[in-house]
Design brief:
The structure is a homodimer of 270-residue chains. Chain A is an alpha/beta fold and 270 residues long. Chain A has one domain (7-269): Alpha-Beta Barrel (TIM Barrel), CATH 3.20.20. Chain A is built from 11 helices and 9 strands. The first copy, chain A, has a 9-stranded parallel β-sheet with strand order 3-2-1-9-8-7-6-5-4. In chain A, helix 4 packs parallel to helix 5 (113-134). Chain A is globular and about 45 Å long. Chains A, B: It holds the Pfam family AP_endonuc_2. Chains A, B: This is Sugar phosphate isomerase/epimerase.
Chain lengths: 270, 270
């Protein structure tokens, strides 16, 4: 067993592939875990995917993603909540460990950051009963502060844990090293996350980074001390291994088979 | 008087210009403050610049920049400290309100973030006696977390204030709305900064942002609620107005005269 624990392949890492192709690749490369994005899951058909993932014996470490609650008007916010309800059903259908939440940025044209944060809180409160009923853990993922305007007003692990405190049972955090590695308060907050880590994602911060979203590195390509953060997670009770989630124009341009080989060979850097 | 208080022009906002040109532009446009970067200051000659700035009646809101302490070896760290000593002398010579500190990122090839933070602390301790003797306030500027790897391991206002607590007299913080606007702990930390704000810088966060360093917007071009953050600064005792510091490939490509007109007309957005 790799010291980093079992590997899980997030489907966006091999974006050119359909979900059936990712499932086959996991079997072919001995990768025991998978984490699909909803677009490829829906393209395959949720029931079909659930059966094939189960037949392949794959562990579903998460479903990406719910969230995106803030919207400029009430209809938009209601639509987001409805969509999150569907995401909960999908996560339940495929037996995902959690539904990963990318909470959303500022509504179009807004500068009201406290208001957007309130919309996130309200959205989470609205969907929590369904999530609990379905046994789907809501995993709040703090996203790097550089995504605050357009992707996530939830920016730090401390903020995510405050929300978990407020929401209670059925919630946890998804820790992605890319989003939290810079945080001067990380060690303290990771300890505070004890028993509440619902997902652990890895990739790397490249120097230089040339795009705010699509220039992540494979583990070992950048400057994040991934094993140090994994050790914090394990000290907080995490034993679920590492999910490799790489959003990268550079790697998406490669043959996905090459990318999967790189991912498995770089498991040791996690 | 503009409600945002007096305006100061940071020389990098009009990067194509020499310091004499910026000094003339301030007079021409009725801008009472200036904040030079060291490269243009040295190109003009420090004594000559000091005299011309004084003769023009300009208030020097800061000198950019000291810092950049982490280095891969002891010689590199010693050289950084020496360079900071020269920066202190320059800040004193031009009567700057403060020396703005961009503390530095990870040393080349390093993933040791706690180690880099220690190098920053050691560097600051080393230069503080000279700064105090010269009456130059050391203004710690937390930089956006997206610059952690290569520019500043000092990422949050809270972390900067912790350092001020440790360093004591002669230190303060430079608050740039671009670097802190996303922080869920901002309001609390701004209150904690009471009496310790040594500089207040404005620009804006554009959506989308296409470069991690050189794609800042002029006030009003983006999503930062600048007046809300200025109000927090004023509640914490700040009365020094706003320094406009725009690092932007887009605006650097324009005639600087146009940029200065834009800056003055956008004073109202601050």
């Amino acid at each position: 067993m790799n010291p980093a624990g079992p590997l899980s392949l997030n489907t966006i890492t091999v974006k050119p592939w359909s979900l059936p192709q990712v499932i086959e690749a996991c079997a072919r490369h001995g990768i025991p875990g998978i984490s699909p994005w909803r677009d490829v899951l829906q393209a395959m058909g949720v029931d079909n995917a659930a059966r094939r993932i189960r037949d392949a014996g794959l562990h579903v470490t998460g479903l990406c993603r719910g969230g995106m609650f803030p919207a400029a008007d009430a209809a938009g916010r209601a639509a987001a909540i409805e969509d999150n309800r569907r995401a909960i059903a999908e996560a339940h259908a495929i037996g995902a460990d959690c539904l990963v939440m990318v909470c959303g940025g500022l509504p179009e044209g807004s500068k009201d950051l406290p208001g957007a944060r309130d919309m996130v809180r309200e959205g989470l409160h609205a969907i929590l009963p369904e999530a609990r009923a379905a046994g789907v853990t809501i995993a709040l993922e703090p996203l790097h502060p550089m995504t605050c305007a357009d992707r996530s007003v939830l920016s730090t692990l401390g903020q995510a844990l405050d929300l978990c405190d407020e929401l209670g049972e059925g919630t946890g955090v998804a820790v992605d090293v890319y989003h939290v590695w810079w945080d001067p308060d990380l060690e303290r907050q990771m300890a505070r996350a004890k028993g509440r880590i619902a997902g652990f994602h890895v990739c790397d911060w490249k120097v230089p980074t040339t795009d705010l979203v699509f220039d992540r590195g494979l583990p070992g390509e950048g400057v994040i001390d991934i094993p140090a953060i994994r050790a914090m997670a394990e000290a907080a009770g995490w034993g679920g291994g590492v999910e490799v989630e790489i959003l990268s124009n550079r790697w998406w341009a490669e043959d996905p088979e090459t990318v999967v080989r790189e991912v498995t060979s770089r498991h040791a850097y996690c």
